[in-house]
Amino acid sequence: VKKTAAIGVTASTIGVTILFILGVVAWSIGRGAAGSATTAPAAVKVAPTAMPHYYLSIETPDMLGGTEDTGPAYVPASFTLPANEDVTLTIVNFDDATALPAGSEDYATAKGIKGSLSIEPLDTVNPNGVAKAVTTATSLDPAKGVSHTFTIVKLGLNVPVAPKARTTFTFHTGAAGSYTWQCMDPCGCGDTGWGCAMGHMGYMRGTVTVA
Ligand SMILES: [Cu+2]
């Protein structure tokens, strides 16, 4: 019985909806006929398409509740970006600088990005506080100005990430595929700094799925 009643309600709801749509269509046609006689057609407005903007953060071992044996880490470390599109990434970095060792100073220079990096200092105690002055650069000081890098060798992309700052950049993603990104600034443990976080997937290495 309940089922029949429910169907009845649905049928009458559909009936009312159809009548309403017919009414709106009739009203629109009437307006269109009257309007065309007296007014010029309005200009077609094309909605601006916003460039996709993604945010990553780099968190310190303290923030992750771990030790120097694990962190720091990019969060998230694996994510998806749209193919063949200009995308903007902001890396919110809570970590301090690690000097780039002799021979790898090139990683302090941005490659494969559109335009330049914009860098806004981050108050790590009050990260959502008032915005600070933004500076632009294409290259940072390899000794004191780089904390990590966001490097995708296969795409020719290298982004030096400023310490305790928001680093924002735009790049063209290109063809669909799966790409490994890696930090090239030895911020991990051990004599070389290439241990711990540097070797762990999900810390200083991850996967970008371009789809
Ligand atoms: Cu790193």
* Helicity level: 10-25%
Q: Strand order, biggest sheet?
A: 2-1-4-9-5-6
Distinct bound molecules: copper (II) ion
Tell me the radius of gyration.
Answer: 27 Å
The number of helical runs is 1
Strand percentage lies at: 25-35%
> Which structural class fits the helix and strand makeup?
alpha+beta
What is the string of SSEs from the N terminus onward?
HEEEEEEEEEEE
**Chain-averaged pLDDT:** 85
- pLDDT < 50 runs, ≥5 residues: 1-36
Total beta-strand segments: 11
Shape: globular
Alpha carbon gap, first and last residue: 50 Å
The main sheet comes to:
6 strands, mixed
Features:
211 residues; 3-stranded mixed sheet; globular; disordered N terminus; binds copper (II) ion
What do you see in this structure?
- By secondary structure, this protein is of the alpha+beta class.
- The protein has 1 helix and 11 strands.
- It has one helix spanning 2-38; strands at residues 53-59, 73-75, 79-81, 86-93, 114-121, 135-137, 148-152, 157-161, 165-172, 177-182, 205-210.
- It is globular.
- Mean pLDDT is 85; it is low at 1-36.
- Bound molecules: copper (II) ion.
